[in-house]
Amino acid sequence: RSGKCYSLEALFHCLVAIAKDLGASFVTYFPLSVQAITCCLEGTMELEANHVESAFRCLATLCTLLWRSGKVTMLHILECTRHIRNHPKQHVRKLAAQAVAPAVRSSTSEIILASVRNLIMEHSIPCELSQQVHRIEATTFMLHYIAVGHASALHSKSDSVLRAVFDPDFVPEVRGTVRLVIVQNLLVSLDASLPKSVFKELWNSFLHVISSCAAQVGNKNISEVMYLSEIAISICSTRFELCTDGCNKLSGCTLQRQHRA
Question: Is 154 in a helix, a strand, or coil?
Fold first, then answer.
């Protein structure tokens, strides 16, 4: 805050060294460490690119070390990083997501779904409109980097993430415009960064949700149907390839249900 940042890289290296030495015991100091990193980013002086990079490399390492210790829950990591993930500055929100998401991505499918639930549930907390915009973008960044692995490809566990965000029954506490905007922003983000051939997998995930909803169509209200329709329109407006095999399979299932009826 004094405007001097010559020792910042040393500070971040020191935090990582202490975390490695203490192991799981470092969890006591994790919230304060995240606050310290955030404080450095909010100082009166604009940091150079190498200092910003060091800050988020430090955050990523701390999250990974604590998660691998087996003594810290992913929800605790998400809670401790909530402020920096929803930071007013866009580049901070994006870099924070890039730092935290790998730890989430490396966990089991059950923990990934619990993390996605937690991220969406953050929108159930009332806030001002400007903060809501930041939250939506922060959630989009997190979902993007959880679903996308290395080399610009969907992660092997992305199917469960996509099914969850498409499913209107997943986190029913957060519905309506906010939920739809999160999904639409995620589709735009994926469209901008992944080759179109990858998204046969996306169609498969969406069609699975549609198929599940069709099996219980009598229990669905109009808002849920409209939500799925809007997602379908959003996917069709991207450059992603249509999964014709999945569509044919879905059509066959629908005809079979109609025949039985």
Answer: strand
Residue 35 has pLDDT above 50, yes or no: yes
Distance CA 38, CA 245 (A): 48
Q: What is the dihedral of CA 23, 24, 28, 32, to 10 degrees?
A: 60
Q: Are 201 and 148 in contact (CB under 8 A)?
A: no
CA 238, CA 70: separation in Å to the nearest integer?
Answer: 40
Classified as helix, coil or strand, 105 is helix
Q: How many CB atoms lie within 10 A of CB 230?
A: 13
The reported pTM is: 0.86
Give 148's strand partners. Answer: 154
Residue 60 Cα to chain centre, angstroms: 15
Paired tokens of 110:
């059950």
Query: Which residues lie closer than 8 Å to 180 by C-beta, 6 or more apart?
Result: 227, 230, 231
Amino acid residing at 188: V
Q: Which amino acid is at 222?
A: I
Q: Which of 111, 63, 97, 88 is nearest to 186 (CA)?
A: 97
E runs forming strands in the chain: none
CA separation for the pair 230, 241 (Å, rounded): 18
124-177 pLDDT, tens digit each:
888 887 788 999 999 999 999 999 987 678 888 999 999 999 998 899 888 888
Closest CA to 224 of 172, 164, 160, 161: 172
